[in-house]
Queue: 2 jobs
Job 1
Amino acid sequence: MGLAVALSALVLAQGRYQIGQPLSEEEVRRWNVRPSVLATGAGLPPGEGTVDQGAQVYAAQCAACHGGSGEGGAFNRLVAEPFPVTKETNPRDFAIGNYWPYPTTLFDYIRRAMPFATPGILSDDEVYAVVAYLLYQNGIIDGSQPMNAATLPEVEMPARALLQLDPTTQKKFPWITLP
Ligand code: HEC
């Protein structure tokens, strides 16, 4: 009898399906990344990071999968000379220098999705730093100023000019209105 009471108390404590556990507030905070960062920079959080700081974040959190300096790793290449991406380009070769039209998307994506196995572990400062490092490695910024909510949206991405026009509409991104 005592055992049955104890068991039903356990079942109640674990909820209807008896699997999983409640998320802590900290876990909810890590996953609840809103709002998205837009191309204009709207939604970028406070904080900042330099290329040097980013080199450390990169070595510790990214190099194992993306290679020592952004290429040559087991997964996607992040650094490349700006060569035009075509239909034949292997998606693993879509790098920041030739494929990403907005620097702010890079922030949003890395904050949300990387490191691949443990997304959400980077602080906003660390995300700014690793974005600065990757932009520097791609030859897009000179590293003289830290990346933050003011400087990052100002970065001009070479991929914006490289992306081909939509053949039917002759517009770059017919489905959205560019800022
Ligand atoms: C465990 C391996 C792993 C680690 C560690 C990792 N990544 Fe990734 N990364 C991936 C994989 C796999 C993809 C492709 C994901 C997809 O296509 O959905 C990817 C994709 C990316 C992309 C998009 C590439 C593109 O242009 O298509 C960026 C940018 C990126 N990672 C940055 C980072 C950064 C910055 C870090 C460190 C903070 C990091 N990654 C750590 C595995 C990893």
Job 2
Amino acid sequence: MLSLLKKLLPLVAFIMLFNCNNTTKEKSANEPEKTESTEKKQPNIIVVLTDDQGWADVGFNGATDIPTSNLDRIAKEGVIFSNGYVSHPYCSPSRAGLLTGRYQARFGHDCNMPYHGENDATVGTPLSEKMISEALKEQGYKTAAIGKWHVGDHPDLHPNAQGFDHWFGFPGGGMNFWGTPNGPLRTILRNGEAVSEDELSYLTDDFTDEAISFINREKGHPFFIYLAYNAPHAPDHATEKYLERTKHIEYGGRSVYAAMVNAVDDGVGRIDSTLIANGIKDNTIIAFLSDNGGRAEHADNKPNRGHKGMLFEGGIKVPFFISWPEGLKGDQVYENPIISLDLFPTFLEAAGIDSSKENQLDGVNLLPFIKEGNTSQPHEKLFWRSVGGFEYAARIGDYKLYKSAYKEKTLLFDLKNDPLERHDVASNHPEVVTELEKAYTEWDSKNMEPGWVDPHPENVIKEEKKFRAIRNKSLKKKQ
Ligand SMILES: [Ca+2]
């Protein structure tokens, strides 16, 4: 029996080999042959999202106090957007817009999560919305979400359910940087399993390390990494290494904030070195941006007016660049308005996928503008809605309308002549106000009511009251 088997083995092996070859041949007859050059057309994509970082808190936008040499170098290798917007002035809705390529009001995601959202699977970006991770995964990308999530607290809405093969981070909106667990939303998880605090050092470094191991592991495939650092969001935690580099800033709060930004810069530099070491830098896209304008304390949005939470430029205009050595010319500054929603279709097109098939998208493919020299405007109109219209803004051409709850009135700015929003011209141009209000109403008619609400309206009132009180207190008391 054994000798018969031995005699037959070569035959069995031959049949198996033949079948294998045959299968391969059939497969290649039905599918386009993937040569090395077509493989190369699919770039790796890394989104580096920071949290509450101000427009001017990077060297490439003029910061002279915060060391950001890695970000500055990589920005120079690509395209810096001098009018790069996000779709919301604070965390959760802005992330929902970026990840879906849609105005998040389309699906009622206007607010941060209410307390105890972890118990409610209807609070957050619904699974029916297609995230960029899902679109790229369909094309064979390996996908990872690393860092802060904040678009669905309930475990059913965590990244592994939204097209991410790998997830390392925390579900909520903020967390201490030491990784000390504090309830379900402030615990570091790896694919749903809690990570021991002993394994963690400083979250910004830990997130970088996780991204580097993902790159080293998946470098054989095209990959997509959504790296959402929670820095420089509060709490103000830093390590000696980074504090040493910002000790020249003689204002304590700003020096800690700057150290947190420097930790991100250090991380992006280490990721860049990893790409170089693996020989994949040239065909890797790095998109860098903040999720909203700089926070009211320690950040710098100058020269823009306002900060996180507001629809003045300082609340929605962010440091923003895209680099892609093989696909984009470096040393570019692109001035026409663009928005974070544009990343989704831009990435699809960069990966050789026709983005018009995703007809739900509000974003625009930027490649014709930054790669092929199209000189028209990517966006004729842009809109922002906060808490179901509690505040809203519309930009058409150079005019920007802002229905401001902070200022309790509707303001109009001519951004061409007044980019810093110093002069409200609403009373000079009532017809423009009417036109922009009408455009907003039309746009909003295709949106959903907010699915849940947050305390932003009360906070706006409190904040503005405090702001006015400080100013009034400075005046000479009436006798
Ligand atoms: Ca934020």
